[in-house]
């Protein structure tokens, strides 16, 4: 059924507020001139076949001094028209966004933040030889260079700093009573005891097993280091000795 | 005199609003996933053997928390895509790019969830970090997904800026939104650095957990609730913007140094105890402002609105944000109390109540506004028999869940920490105390009530505003 004409009345006034003769049947309602409170808008829709429908809209206007706004509180479901309340900002000359402040500045800030973050992430992982992950001792020794057949003192020292020093301290003095000293510790005389402790840990204490992390050569290197550093003179051990204790 | 905008034909949605509907649909589905994992977690507290080999508690919690973060972020961004064309009076610029990255993100979330479910852990090397799990609690997303999220927010920022420029129209709300999005994208990257030192790692990690979620999200919520209140109650724009500037000043003024309440006991210098204690105690202030604002507006209109479910969710949001984020946060933010309460289930109580109050309430408000305008003819005011039940059941459920966490957290704080001094036997005593063990059952019961509320909500969203037929024109 075609709509022929729409007459819109505001608050029981006799004269129509607007008359729409052709689509789109959209009414833009400006609350700026209306008093605070509830208002009624009647849309009388004339159809091509002469029938007439009456639709009632309820809308409210709020005012605080010069500030105002309106909104539709109740709209008929079946009305073939659309009523839109105009926002006060739409009536003012729209403020143009300043290109520097609202486009360049935020984009620059965003890029600076993300760039810094990328740099930090890269630097963080490459600051330590072998990468942070390797330094944290979480990487299995899959792709690493083969260690020399006779492990030198240097390898043992590096492994000690990585794995042992946080408890037994870099100078081997430990933190008694929880973490015993290694420097001058007579228990270190027994090579097999030291190897087994490193490989399997000591149940019931804080000493963890390192068998999964250290192959025979590495374990031999670190045990040799412990037995010869800080004035200790208990001698080196060989990878074969470690293999026997696994 | 009304300026005429390049509006689409009467009663048609902008492309950006159609995209927003897709955002909301995915948000609701992920919400459901979050609840399933939450239910399993609640049951695992009662029976720790349940699914121990298949889905252990830690993995399950990862899924529960990350699903929530993603669906809430999706919901909030959907709200921006909904209101942006209305605010600028034109289609969003770069909408094709926005749609493209959206489907990339949806696919990516699917892949991440499958990897969490079926791979779960890796060897702890670079492969794990990039493709399985970054291992940082609450933000476990692998690094490739992190980068995708940053790209997503960057495109989002581009959409907003380019649309604003093309419309040649800036408003206070848009200005706040643009700079908040800069912080939203930038701060997320703080959670991506790998350092050997745990203190340094946590130092930056809290930037995401605290500054990202508690500051930039709160401001985004302020903008979205501003648009929602203008729509729901016809609140004057000048009032909205004045309150928004006040809230932004308070959120950032208290929240940035309020970060210090996470730095009390992680190895950071001692001055953080004073700084964090002082500023975090002020953090509830902006939330009080939001409650006053919402109630003032709603009261001034005697609850007359175009959309009843959205208005009531907005009111629930104002109270929930204040009680959950404000009161439950303040309860444990002072260092003198936090020394005993940190890391207990009081934190979980705060988390559940705050996320529900601040963000679930906001997203539900946005979804009801979108649903109202997506159906033809538009029903004004929007109402149904079911939304009230959904709201009531979910509020009851979350209050019960947070309440039981509060009681068990109190038992931990009091027995394990304060009375018995954090020993191993104190730990066992607090975990076997009835105040702890009984609450596990209550929590599980209230979780089911919450799920019931969710089911009613989904039914209501699918049917509301649909029943009445239009005029046969």
Q: State the end-to-end CA separation of chain A.
A: 92 Å
| Helix percent band of chain A | 25-40%
What's the assembly state of these chains?
heterodimer
Q: Report the β-strand fraction of chain A as a percent range.
A: 15-25%
Q: State the order of secondary-structure elements of chain B, H for helix, E for strand.
A: HHHHHHHHHHHHHHHH
- Protein chain pair with the most extensive contact, residues per chain: A-B, 62 and 65 residues
Largest sheet of chain B, described in full? none
Q: How are helices and strands ordered from N to C of chain A? A: EEEEEEEHHHHHHHH
CATH homologous superfamily grouping of the largest domain in chain A: Cytochrome c-like domain
Helices and strands of chain A: which structural class? alpha+beta
Count the domains of chain A.
2
What does this structure look like?
- The complex is a heterodimer of chains A (246) and B (473).
- Chain A is α+β, with helices and mostly antiparallel strands and 246 residues long.
- Chain A is built from eight helices and seven strands; from the N terminus they run E-E-E-E-E-E-E-H-H-H-H-H-H-H-H.
- In chain A, the strands form two sheets. Chain A has a five-stranded antiparallel sheet with strand order 2-1-4-5-6, with no helix packed on it. Chain A has a two-stranded parallel ribbon with strand order 3-7.
- In chain A, strand 4 (37-47) and strand 5 form a beta hairpin.
- Residues 139-149 of chain A have low confidence and may be disordered.
- In chain B, 51% of the residues are buried.
- The longest helix of chain B is centred in the middle third of the chain and has 36 residues, at 198-233.
- In chain B, helix 3 runs antiparallel to helix 5 (143-167).
- Helix content of chain B is 75%, strand content 0%.
- Chain B has a domain at 12-169.
- Chain B has 16 helices and no strands.
Write the layout of secondary structure elements.
The complex is a heterodimer of chains A (246) and B (473).
Chain A lengths: L2 E8 L7 E3 L5 E4 L7 E11 L4 E13 L2 E8 L7 E4 L2 H4 L7 H28 L4 H5 L17 H11 L1 H4 L22 H10 L15 H13 L10 H7 L1
Parallel strand pairs in A: 3-7
Antiparallel strand pairs in A: 1-2, 1-4, 4-5, 5-6
Helix pairs in contact in A: 4-7, 6-7, 7-8
Chain B lengths: L14 H32 L10 H32 L6 H24 L7 H6 L11 H25 L4 H17 L9 H36 L3 H22 L12 H12 L1 H17 L7 H23 L4 H7 L3 H30 L12 H33 L4 H9 L1 H30 L10
Helix pairs in contact in B: 1-2, 1-3, 1-13, 1-16, 2-3, 2-5, 2-7, 2-13, 3-5, 5-6, 6-7, 7-8, 7-11, 7-13, 8-9, 8-10, 10-11, 11-13, 13-14, 14-15, 14-16
């Amino acid at each position: 059924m075609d709509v022929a004409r729409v007459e819109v009345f505001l608050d029981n006034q006799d004269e129509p507020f607007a008359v729409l003769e052709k689509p789109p049947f959209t009414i833009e309602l400006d609350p700026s001139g209306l008093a605070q409170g509830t208002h009624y808008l009647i849309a009388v829709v004339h159809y091509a076949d002469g029938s007439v429908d009456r639709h009632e809209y309820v809308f409210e206007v709020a005012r605080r001094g010069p500030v105002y706004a309106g909104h539709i509180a109740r709209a008929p479901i079946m009305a073939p028209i659309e009523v839109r309340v105009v926002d006060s900002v739409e009536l003012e000359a729209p403020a143009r966004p300043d290109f520097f402040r609202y486009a360049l500045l935020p984009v620059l800030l965003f890029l600076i933040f993300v760039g810094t973050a990328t740099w930090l992430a890269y630097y963080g992982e490459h600051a330590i030889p072998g990468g942070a992950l390797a330094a944290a001792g979480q990487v299995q020794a899959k792709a690493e260079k083969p260690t020399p057949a006779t492990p030198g003192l240097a390898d043992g020292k590096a492994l000690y700093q990585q794995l042992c020093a946080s408890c037994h301290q870099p100078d081997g003095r430990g933190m008694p009573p929880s973490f015993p000293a290694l420097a001058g510790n007579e228990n270190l005389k027994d090579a097999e005891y030291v190897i087994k402790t490193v490989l399997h840990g000591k149940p019931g204490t804080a000493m963890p097993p390192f068998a999964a992390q250290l192959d025979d050569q590495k374990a031999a290197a670190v045990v040799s280091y412990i037995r010869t550093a800080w004035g200790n003179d208990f001698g080196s051990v060989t990878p074969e000795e470690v293999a026997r204790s696994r | 005199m009304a300026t005429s905008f390049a509006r689409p034909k009467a009663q048609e949605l902008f492309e950006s609003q159609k995209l927003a509907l897709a955002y909301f649909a995915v948000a609701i589905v992920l919400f459901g996933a979050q609840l399933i994992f939450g239910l399993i977690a609640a049951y695992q507290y009662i029976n720790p053997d349940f699914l121990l080999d298949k889905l252990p508690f830690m993995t399950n919690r990862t899924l529960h928390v990350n699903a929530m973060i993603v669906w809430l972020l999706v919901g909030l961004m959907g709200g921006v895509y909904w209101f942006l064309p209305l605010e600028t009076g034109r289609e969003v610029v770069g909408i094709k790019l926005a749609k493209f990255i959206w489907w990339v993100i949806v696919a990516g979330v699917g892949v991440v969830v499958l990897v969490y479910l079926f791979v779960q852990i890796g060897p702890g090397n670079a492969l794990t970090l990039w493709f399985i799990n970054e291992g940082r609690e609450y933000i476990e997303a692998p690094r490739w997904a992190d980068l995708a999220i940053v790209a997503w927010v960057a495109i989002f920022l581009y959409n907003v800026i380019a649309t604003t420029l093309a419309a040649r129209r800036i408003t206070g709300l848009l200005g706040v939104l643009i700079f908040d999005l800069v912080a939203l994208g930038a701060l997320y990257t703080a959670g991506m650095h790998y350092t050997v030192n745990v203190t340094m790692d946590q130092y930056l990690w809290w930037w995401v957990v605290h500054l990202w979620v508690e500051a930039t999200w709160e401001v985004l919520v302020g903008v979205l609730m501003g648009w929602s209140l203008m729509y729901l109650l016809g609140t004057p724009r000048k009032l909205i913007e004045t309150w928004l500037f006040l809230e932004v000043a308070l959120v950032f003024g208290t929240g940035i140094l309020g970060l210090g309440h996470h730095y009390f006991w992680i190895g950071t210098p001692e001055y953080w105890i004073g700084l964090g204690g002082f500023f975090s105690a002020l953090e509830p202030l902006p939330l009080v402002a939001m409650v006053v604002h919402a109630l003032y507006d709603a009261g001034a209109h005697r609850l007359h609105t175009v959309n009843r479910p959205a208005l009531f969710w907005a009111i629930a949001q104002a109270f929930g944000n204040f009680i959950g984020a404000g009161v439950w946060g303040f309860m444990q933010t002072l260092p003198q109390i936090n020394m005993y309460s940190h890391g207990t289930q009081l934190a979980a109580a705060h988390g559940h109540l705050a996320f529900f109050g601040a963000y679930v309430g906001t997203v539900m408000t946005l979804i009801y506004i979108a649903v109202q305008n997506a159906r033809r003819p538009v029903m004004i005011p929007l109402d149904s028999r079911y939304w009230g039940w959904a709201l009531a059941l979910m509020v009851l459920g979350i209050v019960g869940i947070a309440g039981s966490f509060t009681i068990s957290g109190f038992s931990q704080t009091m027995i394990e920490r304060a009375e018995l001094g954090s020993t191993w036997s104190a730990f066992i005593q607090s975990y076997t105390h009835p105040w702890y063990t009984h609450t596990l059952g209550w929590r599980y019961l209230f979780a089911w009530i919450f799920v019931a509320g969710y089911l009613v909500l989904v039914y209501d969203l699918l049917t509301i505003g649909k029943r009445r037929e239009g005029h046969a024109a």
